[in-house]
Structure formats: structure tokens, C-alpha cells
Amino acid sequence: MLLDYVLVSARLASLELCDPGASWAILLVMLFLRTLGATKLYRQFGRPHLSCILETPALGLALALNIGVEFGLYAIVLLLTAHVGVAVLGAHAVAISINSVAFMAPLCVAQPLTILVSQANNSGDSEGARRIC
Q1: What would the pLDDT profile of 8-66 be if each residue is shown by its tens digit?
Q2: Which one, of 103, 107, 121, 56, lies nearest residue 132 by Cα?
Q3: Are residues 93 and 41 in the same domain?
């Protein structure tokens, strides 16, 4: 709040920053909080394992490509149907909404199962990981 007071109302500063001042205040506070949180995590868990950090993008790459292709195909279908008319675009939006709702239930089940399988696999319990699936 003090930073907002200084940067926005410029009572203690020579220039009045208004909206940019509020943005700078929020940025500085968030950087401070992130730094504080990172140092607390470092103290709590120790130094990061570089090998695990390097494995993470490889694991997430397939998922990112899958989501990118899915959203890309929806965008291409939308562009292909754009010339047909407003009614078709509205029907497409309704169909995509129904598809998204139908897709969310399996996704909400699959994500926790993925975490459980990963935990069992990393602890060396491959039989437990098979039972979860």
C-alpha cells in the first residue's frame, strides 16, 4: 500500500504515475513475494535436482503438442466455416461447448490417475502403478 501511495498519488515523489505507478507497485510486490517464496522453498526442500528439472519438459512436450493440435484443429474448423454464416458459427460454438463438457469428466479422472501412477512409478512400485491403471 505504501508503494501504491508513493507511485500512484505521488505524494512523496516528484511525478505522478497513476496507472503505470500502480502496475510498477504490483510488479515490485509480486517479485518480492516470489523471491521470498523461492527462498523459503529452497530452505525447506534443499537445492533443486537438475536432472529432474531437465526431464520435466520432455514429459510435458507430448501433452503440449496434443493440446496445441486439438485447439489448432478447432481454430481451423472455425476458419473454414466462417464464410457459411452466423447460424453455422453459433451451432459450432454450441457443439464445441458440449464437446468440452463431455471431455472434462474423463480429463478430471485422468489427471489425478496420472499423478498416482507417476508417484508409484517413481517410488519403484511398478506393480502398484499397473494396478492403478
Answers
A1: 555 544 555 556 666 777 788 788 888 887 777 677 776 777 887 787 787 788 888 88
A2: 121
A3: no
Residue 37 is part of which domain span? 2-45
pLDDT digit string (tens) for 61-97? 888 888 888 888 878 887 887 788 888 888 888 888 8
Q: How many domains is the chain built from? A: 2
Q: What is the pTM of this model?
A: 0.37
Q: How many CB atoms lie within 10 A of CB 7?
A: 22
Say if CB 34 and CB 56 are below 8 A apart. no
113 and 59 in a common domain: yes
Nearest CA to 117 out of 59, 67, 69 is that of: 59
Can you read off the three cell numbers belonging to residue 71? 485447439
Q: Are residues 28 and 72 in the same domain?
A: no
Residues 90 and 25 occupy one common structural domain: no
Q: What distance in Å separates the CA atoms of residue 3 and residue 8, rounded to the nearest whole number? A: 8
